[in-house]
Amino acid sequence: MNPVGMPLYQSFSFEHEPCMVAIWQIAEREDELVAPLPHAGALLDEARRRFKAPSRRSEWLAVRRLLHELGVTSHIGYLPSGRPYLVDDARHLSISHTRGYAAVALHSGMPVGLDIEQRTDKVCRVQEKFLSHEEKTFLPSGKNNVEALLILWTAKEAIFKLIDRPGIDFADHFHLAPFRVADAGECTAHETFTPEHRTFCLHYWTLPDFVMSLSTISSCAEVAGGGRMK
Predict the structure, then answer these.
(1) pTM of the full predicted structure?
(2) Burial status of residue 1 (CB atoms within 10 A of its CB: 0-12, 13-18, 19 or more)
(3) Exposure on the CB side of residue 200, measured as CA atoms within 13 A
(4) 71 contacts: CB under 8 Å, gap ≥ 6
(5) Which among 6, 113, 137, 170 is least buried, having the fewest CB atoms inside 10 angstroms?
């Protein structure tokens, strides 16, 4: 793990999958974020055209700086649904950001979904929108309740990005198996939205400022080693 305050906050790799996740702590001005990038001026102009809020501009630019630091030279395109992809790179991409952080996931073999959320108890007020009846029965009480809710929320957001279809109801269509709240863990989930009723492997991390989940369509047995912090 890099020290807090360094831009590349953390990265995770997997022993049994060609996948990595990296997180950027946004501490720079907009011009500092783009300074090392090719076509820095054009990127800065595009960010200012796209977003009025400085925080959104910084998040957008931080994603591109993070990919640059990871050695990705392809630029980002977007499907009609809004899902990002790498134009000249076969790796699958997922992007997420929350206050002060931007994160990317790259997978060489299959689509991937990533979500990162700031730690906040706001999730308690909206839990009815995303919890299934079964999930309510295994939620822990006390200090781990908010933590578990954030894991559930980010996990379902990650699955949603992976499926990339409209009309999904998080409470009715996504179902997580019981899991334990930990610094890092994994569990399975399944969806009842598509005819395939696919199963997902989920990795989650609970860090001081945020909770993050990664979703792939694969067997958790194949990634039992989990994510390793670098």
Answers:
(1) 0.90
(2) exposed
(3) 30
(4) none
(5) 137
pLDDT at 222 over 60: no
Query: Strand, coil or helix: what is 101?
Result: strand
Burial class, 51, CB count within 10 angstroms (exposed 0-12 / middle 13-18 / buried 19+) = middle
At 183, the amino acid letter reads D
Q: Where are the domains of the chain?
A: 8-229
For the stretch 150-170, pLDDT in tens is 999 999 999 999 999 999 999
> By C-alpha distance, which of 216, 226, 3 is closest to 106?
216
Strand partners, 78: 84
Q: Give the CATH number of domain 8-229; options: 3.10.310.70, 3.20.20.150, 3.90.470.20, 3.40.50.2300.
A: 3.90.470.20
User: pLDDT for 3-21, tens place per residue?
Assistant: 333 467 888 888 777 899 9
Question: Using one digit for the tens of pLDDT, what is the confidence trace for 119-138?
Answer: 999 999 999 999 999 999 99
